[in-house]
């Protein structure tokens, strides 16, 4: 990391967690890894009245009219609004299993001018887990040259794990491990 970031980490005893929607690789945590096509109107029929009832008077324009809702519109709502809003509640801290890769130093330390801080990720994870309980996951990134999407509604946990852990094999030199936080 850049020297300033390392200094702040050590002084404040904090680590940085970034939203997966803000990663530097636009294909990392790509929404195409999630399949929302089973988000049919019938599946969401019970949740729409609940959603509408929570809106304030000033938000009436956001109410969803169940009768005019099509399956395609439901899929669009999940893909373009509901899931991106959920994604903002996730923070990810990224680590490498290697500290001596020249490409990593050039990408993440302002052209070899920063520092590398080593962590025992197992100890770090369990100490953070004591603070966050069930809102934390330790994830080994999987690198691939072919991407498949998982059904978000069939297995929510597996699809989120897949979304967070799948990355193009051109990044395999990073040997990345992530800690996922949910706020």
From TrEMBL:
It comes from the Bacteria. Pfam families: DUF2971 (PF11185). InterPro entries: DUF2971 (IPR021352). This is DUF2971 domain-containing protein.
């Amino acid at each position: 990391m850049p020297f300033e970031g390392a200094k702040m980490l050590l002084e404040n005893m904090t680590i940085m967690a970034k939203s997966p929607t803000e990663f530097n690789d636009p294909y990392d945590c790509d929404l195409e890894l999630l399949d929302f096509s089973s988000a049919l109107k019938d599946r969401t029929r019970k949740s729409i009245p609940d959603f509408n009832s929570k809106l304030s008077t000033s938000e009436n324009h956001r109410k969803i009219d169940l009768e005019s809702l099509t399956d395609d519109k439901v899929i669009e709502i999940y893909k373009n609004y509901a899931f991106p809003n959920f994604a903002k509640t996730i923070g990810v801290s990224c680590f490498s299993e290697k500290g001596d890769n020249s490409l990593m130093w050039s990408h993440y330390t302002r052209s070899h001018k920063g520092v590398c801080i080593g962590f025992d990720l197992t100890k770090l994870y369990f100490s953070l887990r004591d603070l966050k309980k069930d809102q934390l996951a330790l994830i080994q990134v999987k690198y691939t040259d072919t991407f498949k999407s998982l059904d978000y509604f069939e297995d929510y946990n597996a699809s989120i794990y897949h979304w967070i852990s799948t990355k193009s094999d051109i990044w395999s030199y990073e040997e990345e491990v992530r800690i996922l936080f949910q706020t």
